Amino acid sequence: MHIDCDSCTVRGDACSGCVVTVLLGMPSSRMEWDEDEERAIGVLAASGLVPPLRLVRAVDHSSRQAG
User: Fold this and answer.
1) Which of 30, 22, 38 shows the shortest CA–CA distance to 2?
2) Angle 31-37-38 (CA atoms, 0-180°, nearest 5)?
3) 5 neighbors 26 (Cβ within 8 angstroms)
4) What is the pLDDT of residue 39?
């Protein structure tokens, strides 16, 4: 999983409740979690030990085809 806080549409508003800033502080660059790390964070979040990942990526509407 690629995590780029610069591309998050709720950056600022949701940072204080996001696992990234809780565990790592505000990252200075893009991060990458492998499947095991992503699963571990999910287990910790589900048990209430850390907040969930709040990353919300912008939707690119230009790549959609007309239907």
Assistant:
1) 30
2) 80
3) yes
4) 92
